[in-house]
Amino acid sequence: MLESYARKGYYAIDPEEKKKGSDILWFIWENKNSPVFGKDKMTTFERYFVAEKATHVEPKNPYYRLLEKEGESAVTDDAMVVETMLGESVKLYEGSYENIKITTPEDLKLAEAFVGK
User: Fold this and answer.
1) What is the pLDDT of residues 69-117, one digit of tens each?
2) Which of 32, 50, 83, 88 places its Cα 20 to 30 Å from the Cα of 77?
3) Which residues 6+ apart lie within 8 Å of 12 measured at CB?
4) pTM of the model
5) Would you say 66 and 72 are in contact if contact means Cβ atoms under 8 Å apart?
6) What is the 3-state secondary structure (H, E, C) of the chain?
7) Gyration radius of the chain over CA positions
8) CA atoms of 58 and 65, how far apart (whole Å)
9) 3-class SS shares of the chain: helix, strand, coil, % to 5
10) Alpha carbon distance 24, 9 (integer Å)
11) Are 115 and 18 in contact (CB under 8 A)?
């Protein structure tokens, strides 16, 4: 859902939809409560304009710390994050290439091809 609105922030023709999408895109990009932010702070400004390396540090949440681990205990995908952080087993089911997410006009054309329109 967030991806759909983020795309509207860039592609929408309706100004109201474009504004809503733009707001959600900024939320995703820089809000501490965003599901994809993953850091205590963002230091883009500091990396560009402050020479002191200590100001460049972006402490990451456990999800990203696990993904960045190296060696045998490295996490290679989201399923391993769930298993490592929550101690839960992940079940996989075979899906279908026809099960797609429709977020762009191109996706809609593909979906129409699947249903034979």
Assistant:
1) 766 566 667 777 777 767 788 888 888 877 888 888 888 888 888 888 6
2) 32
3) 18, 21
4) 0.35
5) no
6) CHHHHHHHHHHCCCHHHHHHHHHHHHHHHHCCCCCCCCECCCCHHHHHHCCCHHHHCCCECHHHHHHHCCCCCCCCCHHHHHHHHHCCCCCCCCCCCCCCCCCCHHHHHHHHHHCCC
7) 19
8) 11
9) 55, 0, 45
10) 8
11) no
- pLDDT level of residue 35 (50, 70, 90 thresholds): low
Distance CA 37, CA 27 (A): 9
Point out which residues pair with 39 in neighbouring strands.
Answer: 60
Q: At which residue do the structure tokens 């609105």 appear?
A: 5
Q: Which residue has the tokens 């965003």?
A: 34
Please, which pLDDT band fits residue 52 given cuts at 50, 70 and 90?
very high
Tell me the backbone φ, ψ of residue 62, rounded to 5 degrees: -55, -35
15-30 helix and 2-11 helix, angle to the nearest 10 degrees: 120
At residue 49, the pLDDT reads 93
Q: Which two tokens stand for residue 81?
A: 């994050």
